[in-house]
Design a protein that fits this description.
Length: 297
């Protein structure tokens, strides 16, 4: 059985990227201290308790999935903008986009009696399109210990380049066994799935994922974290949610205001700050950069 590589939270970014490129997954140990884990659990617990169980074998009939976590939890906001994960997004995604974005926030609680989830790729959220590029970086933050008995995520190291119809054999599958406060990092292309919970305790995992900025988000962040909430957040987090242009002319809008009372072409950030000055959908510098890319210069 293969094993996932564990690195300390303060390992060099280059070492993290090397393992991610080779295996498609790795574990960062000790990213959150026990106090930070407890704070996050306390903030999320009321929402998790009110979340109904899934209805099928994929979402899990003994599993709950709680979203809108940026709007609901200050502690989750800190995790979303973790600089280590940002550097891995830069490494994995930046070659295929001008800007990456937050794709999904979800607290996954696997309860006793839940069977193993089918092995899959998260990139299948967009079907089997996008051949030849990596569209996604994923993380699962352990808010309880992840054990072989309580449903630690199944992972197939080295499967990022497999064809979509390749089936993992049992000896090719391992589990992301890790302590609370550790983080499983994996690509959108690596085969994986939730583990079976044969214990008498819940398993809590915080799923935070990122995608190329020109793709549709799995969790609609504009609805999960609407402008009245997003405008209270940091500019970095606003940009990750999607309140920023995804390219020179990607994501602008016209505010539906009375004649003459607003710009005709505005970036999404106008909905948060209402700054008319400089409210344009792109810049000459952006356009020049695109031209240079097309010319190969």
């Amino acid at each position: 059985m293969p094993e996932l590589v564990h690195l300390p939270a303060d390992a060099p970014s280059g070492a993290m990227a090397e393992i991610l490129d080779r295996d498609g997954a790795l574990i960062l140990d000790g990213v959150l201290n026990p106090g930070a884990v407890g704070e996050m659990v306390a903030e999320l617990a009321p929402y998790v308790a009110a979340t109904p169980e899934g209805r099928d074998g994929f979402t899990g009939v003994r599993t709950t999935r709680t979203g809108a976590l940026v709007a609901r939890s200050p502690a989750v906001r800190e995790a979303v903008t973790d600089p280590r994960i940002a550097r891995l997004c830069e490494h994995l995604l930046k070659a295929n986009c001008e800007r990456w974005q937050l794709h999904l926030t979800q607290l996954i609680r696997i309860m006793p009696g839940q069977g193993a989830q089918p092995i899959h790729r998260d990139r299948w959220a967009w079907g089997t399109h996008l051949k030849g590029i990596e569209p996604q970086l994923n993380t699962i933050w352990a808010l309880t210990d992840f054990t072989a008995e309580n449903g630690a995520t199944q992972v197939v190291p080295g499967s990022s380049d497999w064809p979509d119809d390749r089936k993992a054999e049992p000896h090719e599958i391992t589990q992301a066994v890790m302590k609370a406060g550790s983080v499983l990092v994996y690509t959108g292309s690596v085969f994986h799935g939730g583990g079976a919970n044969r214990s008498d305790q819940d398993r809590w995992g915080l799923n935070l994922t990122y995608a190329l900025g020109w793709l549709r988000q799995e969790e609609n962040q504009y609805l999960a974290c609407p402008p009245e909430i997003a405008r209270t957040l940091s500019p970095e987090l606003q940009d990750l949610l999607g309140y920023a242009l995804g390219g020179y002319a990607l994501g602008y809008y016209t505010p539906p205001l009375p004649p003459g009372e607003g710009p005709e072409l505005a970036p999404p950030s106008f909905a948060l700050r209402g700054e008319a000055e400089g409210a344009v959908f792109g810049s000459a510098e952006d356009l020049a950069a695109i031209g240079a890319q097309v010319r190969g210069s």
